[in-house]
Every structure is written in structure tokens, then in C-alpha cells.
Amino acid sequence: MNREAREAARELCAVGRRAVELGLSPGASGNVSARAGGLTLMSPTGVSLRDLDPEGLSVLDGAGEHVAGPPPSKEFPLHQAMYRRVPDAGAVVHLHSPHACAASCLPAWSEASALPPVTPYLVMRVGQAPLVPYAAPGSDRLADNLSRLPGRFRAALLANHGSIVAASGPAAALDGAVELEEASRIVVSLRGSEFSVLSPEDVRELTGRYGTDWDL
């Protein structure tokens, strides 16, 4: 790996450990990837994010061919689909965090977003996050379901599964996943109660200021 890829590998492993510390990646669940120096670095299959090692990551070339390290997570097609949707993304984080998983089992708020705009922070830090129809983890169908969704987004909930977030780098992607988990926690806790959401005018102000997407 070149210097850029080595630095990305170190950051990716630090993000994996942080996700476990925050309780967002139980057991050996979840997977992370980063693009650098023409390569994609990814957590290997069956390895806890707590145990990631910069020298033990899976390495894939620009065409998605496995070129070094152990086999990548079975969710590599899902990560590829997210990179195609967000061409400027430098990293993707997919987690099975508890509240995002719970929210992914509920009906979507709208076609554009699984979650309503309950806080300004979801709108300004993540933007809309649609609900991807269920398909088996690691399947090409799951990646296809994400690819076929309309609109622009950098995050999504995977039905009955968890969350996925793309961002400029691993740390930013984890920040988005944390915000998505917190918004999911709020929505799940409000289930069955009347609650308010941000007005369309407030949403437009935030998306305009922070460059996120939210279809109203």
C-alpha cells in the first residue's frame, strides 16, 4: 500500500474500534471500508471491528477485485453500491446499531426518508436516509435495492438490518452513523405518541446551509 492507503487503513481501524466502544457494533457485526490511492480497504469477513489491524485489512483494486489481505466482508457489494451513489465518498460505515436496527423494522416516514426530521442535527449532519427494501445480508439483491432507490442521499436504513453511511472519510462516516443512531433512538422512543417535526421551511434552511439533501 502507498502512504495514502496506509494512513486510511489506520483511520479505518481506529473508527472500527470506536464503533465498538460506543456500543454500535455488537459481536462481529458491521463492516467498514475506505478508498485511498486507487484501492478500497475493507474489514475482513468474520472479524470484529474491535480487532481490525491496518496490516490485516482486505484490499481491493479499482475494479473491486480482491488483491491482498484476507477475504473482504460479504457486504462488499453493498459498499460498492453506496460508493456509486456517492462518488465523492472516501469511506462507508455499515453498522447493526440497536436503535437503527429497531427503526429499520418500522414503516418508513416517507419514500425519501425512513426517519422524520425530528431534530435539526439529523437534517444538517446526515440528511434524508431512505429505507432500503429487505434482502439477505451480503446479497447482490440488497446492493441492487439500494442502487434503485430514487433521490440523493448519503445514508440509509436497511430494512430489518441496520444502517449505512457514506462520507468523506472514516471518521466522518462514523459521525454520521452516530447521528443516525441517535435520531433512530428518538423516533423509536416516540413510537405511539404524537410528536412534532421540523417544518419544510426549517428543513430547507438547514439543507441550504449545510449542503445536505431532503426531499419535501
From TrEMBL:
GO terms for biological process: pentose catabolic process. Residues 10-188 form the Class II aldolase/adducin N-terminal domain. The keyword Membrane does not apply. Keywords: Lyase, Metal-binding. One of its GO terms (molecular function) is aldehyde-lyase activity. GO terms for cellular component: cytosol. This is Class II aldolase/adducin family protein.
